[in-house]
Amino acid sequence: MATAWLRFLLGRLAGTAVVLLVLSFGIYCLVYLAPGSVEHTLLGNRPATEETRAAIRAQYHLDDPLLVQYWNWLAGALHGDLGTSIRSGEPVDVAISSRATLTLQLSTLGTLFALLLGIPAGIAAALRRGRAADQGIVVLSVAGLSAPPFAVGLLLLGLLAVKLGWFPVYGAGDGGLDRWWHLVLPATALAIGGAGLLVRFTRTSLVRELDQDYVVFARARGLGGVRVLRYALRNCAVPILTATGLVLTSILVGSVLVEVVFALPGLGSLLVDSVTFKDVPVVQGVALLLTILIALVNLAVDAAYAAADPRVSLVRRKR
Amino acid sequence: MSTPLPTDPSAAVPGGRRRRARPRRWPGTVVAVGLVVSGLALLAALVGPLFLPDATQQDVLLGVSQPSAAHPLGTDDLGRDVLQMVAVGARSSVLGALLIAAGSLLLGHLIGLPAGYRGGWVDQVAMRWTDLMFSLPALLVAIVVTGVVGGGYLLAVLTLVVLFSPGDTRVVRAAVLEQRQRPYVEAARLSNLRDRTIALRYVWPNIAPVVTGNAFLNFGFALVALSSLSFLGLGIAPGSADWGRMLADNRSLLLSNTWAVVTPGLAIILTAAAVNVVGDWLHRRLDERGLRR
């Protein structure tokens, strides 16, 4: 059992490692092949002598062949050194860790909102299947699922922050409670789509469970609605977990855009700023971190399946 | 990039045991509204620029203004009419999404048909490719690619075609796999038809409904993805009439003319929702039809 678990884990790790290698090499190729050069972006329109350019190129090893550059970066990264940012000159791991907290807080709050909004709405829809309330919830969930978080964010910003003045407009606050207060609107914007997804998964699986014989039987034995619902919900755990995993990953990616909307100094705005600057070390760092986070979420969801449903076994499943 | 959605089991259980409400109405009204909204968006995309050739005409002296008789939704900071901009902006937003859905459908066929029909190493390679693409965060990759190369509308569209295609590939492959075992394929083989003829002329019409339904769903997600890139300034050129771009350009006008931000935002949300409602309905209908055959 333990060895099988270990094999599953190692398989997953190997898969993630391949993805990370492909992604990082892809980014290197892209920067190498893309028009425009780093020293151009660094210097802007300032006049520069040939020596200055050469010095910059030498400093960032830009004249090395592609494979050498990539190898040097990879060797550094494997030793925990992600290099220094071309744009700001600070070490990449410092730049990332100073901003990662905000992104993680935002994503956690967004997922929490999505769960609190989506699951109860899905349950309510399933219990009132076919009636007006159900139809209303389903239509709203489709709308939520389709709405891009940055557009929702701007609408919320316009209505709740600018017109009504209930929420702060920009920035990340001064830490502590103020920070969370500043994150309410962006987290809501992120949560809308996730809530729509959770409504669908919850409703569909609960409708299916409520049609099962054991529910009819439990009702016939005179069990109350709440206890029956508890039995049925227990069997919906796997689809809901699947949806939660999807929501978490989509929120992690969506936070890139929402951070730009609300001017939050998180990983997303760091990525967007660095990408146009061709700041390879930072782009690599952020992209890899987000990919690792997403892989971790997927791993956690798979492990949670086994915990939630004894019929699911990770180790025997053929992957 | 599209999320797999569970299908409604109430459709699969004929005459389910529980008291069944009247035949479900919501497909009727909501789908009708969805069709109208998507139709309007498509119409604006096709003919909008013909009727409003001066939509991006600047009036810098006027500048940003509140709604008035001349400008029902006011103007942006360059004095351009917001309503006209949104109507014209449908072109790049909606047609771009159509291009992405169509391109990814084509690419999905090019890889998925041989993978499903031939099997073997072709299938292995194709599936590893889609596995890899699925484990990459698509929007993130799109941001990095378009950002590093320096943006451009066509590049954004092409990148999204590649990123969307694994979903289509899987759908096409799965549908072909399911058809391949049917007797008619065997009969066609026995009558010595070429593989290409069988795949294209006999198998394809049978998988077409499922595949088109999926493409419609892709269209909705492509609209969102493309406008996300435009919003970050990575898709279309600055100052163009494009919904995502307008949201970015008019962000600072929230106080002076809220409509300049709200209108393009609502346009994206409503169009995407309408397209998804129609696509969802289509997907379900066509899927059932495919199963009945």
From TrEMBL, chain A:
Major location (coarse): membrane
Cited InterPro entries? BPD_transp_1_N, MetI-like
Residue stretches making up the ABC transmembrane type-1 domain: 100-301
Give the superkingdom in one word: Bacteria
Q: Name one Pfam family in it.
A: BPD_transp_1_N
Q: Where in the cell is it found?
A: Cell membrane
This protein's membrane topology, according to the annotation, is: Multi-pass membrane protein
Q: Which residues cross the membrane?
A: 12-34, 106-127, 139-160, 180-199, 237-262, 282-308
Q: Which UniProt keywords apply?
A: Cell membrane, Membrane, Transmembrane, Transmembrane helix, Transport
The text of the family note is: Belongs to the binding-protein-dependent transport system permease family.
Q: Can you say what this protein is called?
A: ABC transporter permease
Q: Give the organism, scientific name.
A: Nocardioides daeguensis
TrEMBL record, chain B:
**UniProt lineage:** Bacteria, Bacillati, Actinomycetota, Actinomycetes, Propionibacteriales
Which Pfam families has this protein been placed in?
Answer: BPD_transp_1
Question: Taking every annotated instance into account, which residue ranges of this chain make up the domain ABC transmembrane type-1?
Answer: 94-279
Question: Membrane-spanning residues where?
Answer: 26-52, 94-117, 138-164, 215-237, 258-279
Start and end residues of each stretch annotated as Disordered:
1-22
Family statement drawn from the similarity comment of this UniProt entry: Belongs to the binding-protein-dependent transport system permease family.
Where is the major localization of this protein? Answer: membrane
Q: What is this protein called?
A: ABC transporter permease
Q: Which UniProt keywords apply?
A: Membrane, Transmembrane, Transmembrane helix, Transport
What organism is the protein native to? Nocardioides daeguensis
Say if the entry is tagged with keyword Kinase: no
| Origin superkingdom | Bacteria
Its membrane topology is listed as: Multi-pass membrane protein
**Protein location:** Cell membrane
